[in-house]
Amino acid sequence: MVGGLISEKMGLLEVLLKNNMKNRFTIELISDLDFEGMVVEISLGNQVIAQLNYDKGIDKIEMELCSELAEPNLIFPLSEFSHALERAKDILIRCYNEDQINKPDSK
After folding, report:
1. What pLDDT is attached to residue 21?
2. Which of 14, 21, 48, 98 is least surrounded, with the fewest CB atoms within 10 Å of its CB?
3. What is the 3-state secondary structure (H, E, C) of 90-104?
4. Which one, of 35, 31, 26, lies nearest residue 80 by Cα?
5. Among candidates 46, 60, 10, 47, which has minimal Cα distance to 31?
6. pLDDT above 70 for 107
7. Nearest Cα to 56, choosing from 94, 4, 86, 92?
8. Of residues 20 and 35, which shows the higher confidence score?
9. Is the pLDDT of residue 105 over 50?
10. Which residues contact 96 (CB under 8 A, 6 or more apart)?
11. Residue 8: what are its φ and ψ, rounded to 5°?
C-alpha cells in the first residue's frame, strides 16, 4: 500500500512539474528520514536552494534555505521564486491531506 501512495504522489509531482517547465526552478518531492511527512526541495539549476516540510502542521510549513551553495550569489526573478514556492506549498498540502486520509486510527 505504501508503494502505491508514493507512486500516486510521484504522479502528482509529474503533473505539477509539467506546469513548471518554463521556469528555471525545479521542484522535487522527497522522503527524508529526518521528517515525518514528505519534503519538497526547490532547486535552481542543479543546486538545491530550499526545502519545505510540514512536520509542525500544514498551517506551519517550514522552509529551510540551503547555505552551502556552489555559487555565493544567486540572482533570479522574485516572481519565479514566488511561483516555485507556491507550487511546493501546493504539493505539501496535497501530500498532507493524503497522509491524513491514509493515517491509521490511533485508538
Report:
1. 46
2. 21
3. HHHHHHHHHHHHHCC
4. 26
5. 10
6. no
7. 92
8. 35
9. yes
10. 37, 54, 58
11. -65, -40
- Backbone angles phi and psi of 28, in degrees to 5: -130, 130
First to last CA, the chain: 21
Calculate mean pLDDT across residues 35-53: 88
Cell numbers representing residue 85 in the block: 514556492
Tell me if 107 is assigned to some domain: no
Distance of CA 59 to the CA centre of its chain: 15
Alpha-carbon separation of residue 82 from 23, 70, 79 (angstroms): 11, 22, 5
For residue 41, being part of any structural domain is answered with: yes
| Residue in this structure with the C-alpha cell 506549498, named with its chain if needed | 89
Residue matched to cell numbers 505504501: 2
**What residue numbers bound the domain in which 59 lies?**
2-22+31-102
| Chain segment 81-93, per-residue pLDDT in tens | 999 999 999 999 9
Structural domains of the chain, count: 1
